[in-house]
Design goal:
With 466 residues, the chain is of the alpha/beta class. It is built from 14 helices and 20 strands. Pfam families: Phosphodiest.
């Protein structure tokens, strides 16, 4: 009898150890997952270009009419929403650039990719959550995939160089080959793969340009290469593929007679500003000098009909953006097609993003195919914040606390796949506000507390008998 008590005590100790919600062994039958992002792929780009591979993928799997990104519609913030399931005010990566309002330091996009404290500020992305639960993950050029989170790094990762050529199709295929090797030789369970197109071409030439159309055709060829590579690697029956993007693209009205130019506003002066984040597209932030906040706000609130200026506390709650300590007291965005010029007119892109995430030009794509997905299904538009819960479901892992809702995308899965993973987890609703960074307690894992309680009672009883 004493031996039985000891065995039960060992079982209880195992269940009560840190990370009890995590599987103790990797599951050989688990399907793998590849998330591919093509930056700046607007939802309707396939309508004026022949895209046979994207079309075939839709027939073989799931297609959303379009997907609505988070606000602010910028690369790093939106990509981090995909891998955390949080609105931007809740994950804290509020801009493409690292900035510090005290030191006045501003770092460009590529430098910011390596600033750990910018990314690791309380939210744990899916790579780390998966690894804590026994899986192996990889990130290839994906924003946020090259820093550590709470002391843990992604299993395998690659970071793009500052002079990286985004449009090299030969390199694209080499990168895909590497990712397939990660799956087959390194036995990774999850990989996120990032391509900087058609965003770069859309910026330079505009979303309506012939160059953009040619780049979309290159993207489509790459989708075909990815699917062929999955088949060649023998992964077709056990790898799910999701293709998404971060935001769309809008044509910039560069020659409009009503440009948004701060240096021409009659009642505004930069002498009243302590720190500014302007000239980076259609949104901006200002930190007025002490005692100047009301003066600056009054000078700007009606300064231009295309510019929408708010005090932080009055910014529309529907954007889920302003309620974060990194946001300055004054913030703003401009109408589609208009960028914000600060001290000088220094923006010359023909295409831009960063606008209201409800604008149709900002909508983006979602495609999914693989053993877990239904075939030939087109779904209504949804917010990108829900993709994280779907990915956790596909990987069989317990998600962190997030703003998504698994029920939104559960109908995309086959009946064999969409059974419950565990007891339903509480999720944030669209009305929930405020920073969200604490992982869900492991006690939410499938009724485990009652099991532990029962085992403890059994140990006590057996100990008494023994």
């Amino acid at each position: 009898m004493r031996r039985s008590a000891v065995l039960l005590a060992v079982a209880c100790a195992t269940l009560l150890a840190p990370g009890i919600g995590a599987p103790v062994q990797r599951q050989g039958s688990r399907n793998k997952l590849l998330l591919v992002s093509f930056d700046g792929f607007r939802w309707d780009y396939e309508q004026d270009v022949d895209t046979p591979n994207l079309d075939t993928m839709a027939l073989d799997g799931v297609k959303a009419r379009y997907m609505t990104p988070a606000f602010v519609t910028m690369t790093s913030p939106c990509h981090f929403t995909l891998v955390t399931g949080k609105y931007i005010e809740n994950h804290g990566v509020v801009h493409n650039m690292y900035y510090n309002t005290t030191s006045k330091v501003k770092l460009p996009y590529h430098a910011t990719l390596g600033i750990q404290r910018w990314w690791d500020n309380g939210s744990v992305p899916i790579w780390i959550t998966a690894q804590r639960q026994g899986l192996k993950t990889g990130s290839f050029f994906y924003p946020g995939g090259n820093v550590t989170y709470q002391g843990m790094a992604v299993t395998l990762s690659r970071k793009e160089g500052i002079l990286h050529n985004y449009k090299d199709e030969k390199e694209w295929r080499a990168n895909i080959d590497t990712v397939m090797t990660w799956f087959t030789k390194e036995d990774l369970d999850l990989v996120t793969l990032y391509f900087g197109e058609p965003d770069s071409t859309g910026h330079k030439f505009g979303p309506d340009s012939q160059e953009r159309k040619e780049m979309v055709a290159q993207v489509d060829r790459t989708v075909g290469y990815i699917r062929d590579s999955i088949r060649r690697s023998g992964l077709e029956s056990r790898l799910n593929l999701i293709i998404a993007s971060d935001h769309g693209m809008s044509t910039v009205n560069k020659s409009a007679s009503d440009l948004v130019e701060f240096h021409k506003f009659p009642n505004f002066t930069f002498k009243d500003i302590e720190f500014e984040l302007l000239d980076y597209g259609p949104n901006g932030m200002l930190l007025p000098k002490e005692g100047k906040a009301d003066k600056v706000y009054e000078a700007l609130k009606d300064a231009h009909p295309r510019l929408h200026v708010y005090k932080k506390e009055s910014f529309p709650k529907s954007f889920h953006y302003a309620n974060n300590p990194r946001i300055t007291p004054l913030l703003m965005y401009s109408d589609p097609g208009y960028v914000i010029h600060g001290r000088l007119n220094v923006q010359f892109n023909n295409g831009e993003h960063g606008f209201d995430n409800k604008a149709m030009d900002m909508q983006t794509i979602f495609r999914a195919v693989g053993p877990s997905f239904k075939r030939g299904l087109e779904v209504e538009p949804f917010e990108s914040v829900h993709v994280y819960e779907l990915m956790c479901k596909l990987l069989g892992i317990v998600p962190e606390a997030n703003d998504g809702d698994l029920s939104i995308l559960l109908p995309t899965l086959t009946p064999e796949t969409n059974g419950p993973l565990s007891t339903p987890l509480p999720t944030r609703t669209s009305e929930t506000n405020g920073p969200l960074s604490t992982p869900l307690p492991t006690s939410h894992s499938g009724g485990r507390p009652s099991l532990v309680t029962g085992l403890l009672a059994a140990v006590i009883l057996l100990a008494k008998v023994a």
